[in-house]
Amino acid sequence: MSLNAYEVFVAIVERGSFAAAAHQLNLSPSAVSHALASFEQQLGFALFMRNRTGVRLTVGGEALLPTVREVLQSNEKLGQQASKLLGLEAGTVRIGAFSSVSVAWLPNIIRSFADLYPKIDVIIEQGGYDDVAEWIAKSQVDLGFITLPAAPGLDVTPLYADPLVCIAPPGFAPRSTAYMTVEELAEHNVVLQGEGYGKETQQLLASHKISVKSSARAIDDAAIIAIVESGLGIAVMPQLALHHYQSSVQVFPFYPAESRAIVLASLSREALAPAAKAMHEHIVASVGAWSKRTA
């Protein structure tokens, strides 16, 4: 069984079709079909079910996918270690991140990392908290930004305690002119985030046993800010999510203070390939320096 067949298998899974996999791998569709057919023949069972809309993994394909990804990651690590022995830093690093990290931190992190390691390719995948945790667990990314509590089995490095704030439309007046309380949220219409994206709000409300009414839900930070700015409600947001957004919303800290703990996660810090280890160290240093500048 060849690594080429493994790459073809994973590319079909990730792209959803033979044609898209062929384009990604710079192969002809017939070469992709032949590689998969040979792989399935060696295994003795089919990996995909074909239909008019695309392909779907069989039960055997689902069971085999994590192991194939581990083999490809090991091969990547081997190549990077060999390159390092030659005095080079080469390879690919895949990072999973949620929206506010992607906007506030990653541009500068990627740019400064490229200055240090121009031969390392960096791939960014953006999603919700649950998406990133799942990508790490399935070895689809090397590193991921998540919040605590983390799923069992993940190796986490603390990065930043991100304050939670209440954003409100112009003219909004809380009981105190300086801050909001969590209990006060129950008196207003609260804009909530879709499932998998607003974990910090859910945790905050659950910890204080507060129920709120909501007539609006959104996924991305920009949409929530726009909805609040239009006067349709208030919202709980991490302070980091407000970076780089210009709006007329008012921002109130909570009293007592509330925050979310952002961490950098992987399956195993010690088992990371050289390029991923270098990125891990760079992220920790970069976020630490950013925290000092904004304190």
TrEMBL record:
One of its GO terms (cellular component) is cytosol. It comes from the Bacteria. This is Transcriptional regulator, LysR family. Residues 1-58 form the HTH lysR-type domain. Gene3D superfamilies: Periplasmic binding protein-like II, Winged helix-like DNA-binding domain superfamily/Winged helix DNA-binding domain. SUPFAM superfamilies: Periplasmic binding protein-like II, Winged helix' DNA-binding domain. PROSITE patterns: HTH_LYSR (PS50931). Pfam families: HTH_1 (PF00126), LysR_substrate (PF03466). InterPro entries: HTH-type_LysR_regulators, LysR_HTH_N, LysR_subst-bd, WH-like_DNA-bd_sf, WH_DNA-bd_sf. PANTHER family: HTH-TYPE TRANSCRIPTIONAL REGULATOR YBHD, NITROGEN ASSIMILATION TRANSCRIPTIONAL ACTIVATOR-RELATED. Belongs to the LysR transcriptional regulatory family. Keywords: DNA-binding, Transcription, Transcription regulation. GO terms for molecular function: DNA binding; DNA-binding transcription factor activity.
